[in-house]
Amino acid sequence: MSTFPEYAKYDGLGLADLVRSRQVSALELVEEAIQRIETHNPQLNAVVNKLYDLGREAAKKPLPDGPFAGVPFLVKDLMATIAGVPTSNGNRLWRDIPAKVDSELVRRWKKAGLMILGKTNTPEFGLTPYTEPLTFGPAHNPWDLTRTTGGSSGGSGAAVAARIVPLASGGDGGGSIRIPSAACGIFGLKPTRGRTPTGPEIGEAWHGFAIEHVLTRSVRDSAAMLDATQGGDVGAPYFAPQPGGSYLPEVSARPRKLRIAFTGKPLLGKNVHADMLQGLQETVKLLTDLGHEVVEAGPQIDAEAFSLAFVTILAAELRADIEEAARAAGKKVSVSDFDPASFGLGMLGKALSAQEYAAASRYLQLSARQIGGFFEDYDILLTPTLSQPPVKIGSLQPSDSEKMLIRVIGSLDAGGILKAMGLIKPLAAQTFEFIPWTPVFNVTGQPAMSVPLCWNAEGLPVGMHFVGRFGDEATLFRLAGQLEEARPWANKIPPGF
């Protein structure tokens, strides 16, 4: 029996208000969320490590004076560490190794009053735009259990969409907050590079491409959480520009007339589904009706060169992840301890030269400067978030023959063979076909958000992607608040949840 039947009607700030006014206790909310995990997780496979005792203990103690005091929360099982709890990174070697300390962001989440109840499913090392790790199995989309949740924050996306929790954590290195937000019909903002902390055990993640924040039902929860967590920590490699004030009031502030560019042309892939273009046109009309100037335009990049450079950086990062996991487990690197997709890319990373890594880095830095010039003429860029609606689980995986090839070459430790076979370019092209826009803005470091404005005829979410100028989350929050008011999505709940 439900301990608080009205739970799903409230966002995080709404639940915190109820706790603050003593209409409900933190423990009641925790028990309600636990019951929802137990009820829905067998279908969704969103939560892979249950931390109920941790949440119950926190709910019984005096609550911190934070904006989310008493609110249930789930933490993505990647990057973020909780002292004494394993951070599996979706990998079998890490899944039983407890973290030594809370990461700085976890400390700030706790200070904000969140009750951590578990860790959510993620692909191995956060590599893929789908959440189907061999270690835990696939996460399932609550809108259609046969479909992907996206990745890499797919477990968090499914849990928020299914109303298990009002918000959950995510990290975004190529779209990994925005992709599952689009696939699951919720709101997801990637902050400006350096806006949230990565310490104490990470300097910059994925060459600075990756940053953590949250996936939410409401825009205001995202803004309030960024207020609670923004700002560098000790030893941070860089800092984002200081905001002019609190982000939360921006959500209810009316935006000025914005000059918004839009494009349905993929920056990296080749094909875009008609449902995404239909959603784009609907959003253009909505923005025009709201009084904004909307112009068809987009930045120009060399898709093949950009994709190749991005995958080169990722391959090197993945090899470092693989080596670190093996060291932590006290083992030699073995193909049997890793998923084929990540191990294959890691083998390429081992075969690449230092010069190739440096050249890729320089190319992406120059590309970011060129894209930054585009935003001198526009406040916002609008695109679809994904190239198509959420696809069937398994459809983005390497084929059986590709997996076998990786295992054979991996057993020989012969990544140079993969490189010699010329597999990097087709791998790069395949990687970005589903996500032709989001990774570009991990490279530039700009803030970007996926907004759940559209659904297709099959009842699947079609997210819209908005990119702001570097350091300017405030404008995105103002626009998101206006869109949320004009086309509310809070009452759109997957059938059966």
Describe the protein's topology:
Layout: H1 12-20, H2 26-44, E1 47-50, H3 52-60, E2 72-76, H4 104-111, E3 115-120, H5 154-161, E4 167-172, H6 178-184, E5 187-190, E6 211-216, H7 219-229, H8 248-252, E7 259-262, H9 274-289, E8 293-296, H10 303-329, H11 340-351, H12 354-374, E9 380-384, H13 400-411, H14 415-420, H15 424-431, H16 440-444, E10 448-455, E11 461-468, H17 473-486
Parallel strand pairs: 2-3, 7-8, 7-9
Antiparallel strand pairs: 1-3, 4-6, 5-6, 5-10, 9-11, 10-11
Helix pairs in contact: 2-3, 5-6, 10-11, 10-12, 10-15, 11-13
CATH architectural label of the largest domain = Alpha-Beta Complex
Reported by name, the CATH topology of the largest domain is Amidase signature (AS) enzymes
The SSE string, one letter per element, is: HHEHEHEHEHEEHHEHEHHHEHHHHEEH
In spatial order, strands of the major sheet run 4-6-5-10-11-9-7-8
- Low-pLDDT segments: none
> What is the overall shape?
globular
From the alpha carbons, calculate the radius of gyration and give it in angstroms.
Answer: 21 Å
Number of helices: 17
Largest sheet: 8 strands, mixed
Helix content: 25-40%
Residue-averaged pLDDT:
94
Quaternary state of this entry equals single chain
